């Protein structure tokens, strides 16, 4: 038994190293790699993915895991947990031929560069043939794995284990209706009718300076993490002590960079704090779902960085960094400006109230593609129609419509719902945090976030994948996914802002 345990832990360690190498190559591709390096990078990434897949699906590893599973009652709690989860992952991976994994990796790696070009040229037709290949590969993936129920369940399970289309359709249908109603109530208010677009702008130097201060207050350890620039902000982990995240200073105003930085820093803090110790380099030392991961970024971005106490602290800092631009701003005007409801075409720039409508829109389109109710060629038109129906505005071109996200170029079908799941989880966590820490708002007003970090560490970070996302939320908040908590949070915050 000891020989089998030693073997599975050694294999997990080496597969983890492969993952770190792939993450580093992917991070470089999205930050500093010369554009013409994409083809060779695709070959490099596909090789790494094939080698990792071969290790995970090897007959020897499977045999050792089955042997350990048969004597599960004699294992320690730790070993039993590792064996159970690893065996599930291995059995799933063994259904995929190595050639398929290699083909998917190479296709998506090339597609990312084409997506960038298509977005820059504002021309969906350039990306369309690559996306068609990816959609077909996603259908092949389902044919290999075939989890019970709707085909989309198989795609969803990679990001949100145990979640199903039936659950999401019920939750998202209700949420969409309530969000549209909230939006209509707010947009018909006198305050909304009188508000003007925020025109506040800061140059890149000042944006970076403010983001650096934000990260310092959030206690990011920069001997274990680094911030860079990319077209689409993201976070990735090369190892326990090497987490990379990005932002973008070139978009209009300052809000995009500031809140993207808060968002990605939330991801980074989770990666850096997640359960290690005896579970280091095992399948347990990982997030149980992307919904949980997203809850951490949305918690910091919205519940903290868009709160009034936060702006009690940051208003003087903004005035010091950019006195000319901030001379007419005070805490109340900052708080109102960063929480202004204004339907936008770009998901990453959406206000807190309409954001989930952008996510539900993508979920519905993915379902329709997988169910073959629409074709890839019809995506731009279908996208524009849904934006019009949900938000009352219509994209003028592909860049501000169907080409704005990189996710489909990476074959990440089933990923988008986790943004809404995480947003709902974040509201539930925030409500519970405030219940347990009545002085938290005063601490935030002073720029003190240690209590928040400690609470998240105790209630989220420390569990890793010891439990499912649903189990963690139930243990912490007393119930599972509940969009009513999110809607209640929105009403409590936005109705007073708009006099509804």
Radius of gyration (CA) equals 23 Å
Anisotropy-based shape: globular
- Secondary-structure-based class equals mainly alpha
In angstroms, what separates the terminal alpha carbons?
A: 66 Å
Q: Which segments are poorly predicted (pLDDT under 50) over 5 or more consecutive residues?
A: none
Task: Count every helix, treating DSSP H or I runs of 4 or more residues as helices.
Answer: 22
Main β-sheet: number of strands, strand sense, barrel status?
A: 3 strands, mixed
Query: Which strand order spans the largest sheet, edge to edge or round the barrel?
Result: 1-3-2
CATH architecture of the largest domain: Orthogonal Bundle
Mean pLDDT: 94
Number of domains: 2
Would you kindly provide a written description of the structure presented here, covering whatever features stand out?
This protein has 500 residues and is mostly helical. It folds into 2 domains: 2-133; 165-498, Neurolysin, domain 3, CATH 1.10.1370.30. It has 22 helices and 3 strands. The radius of gyration is 23 Å and the shape is globular. The chain starts with a helix and ends with a helix.
Please tag this protein with its features:
22 helices, mainly alpha, Neurolysin, domain 3, 500 residues, 65% helix
Give the structure's gist in a few sentences.
The chain is mainly alpha-helical and 500 residues long.
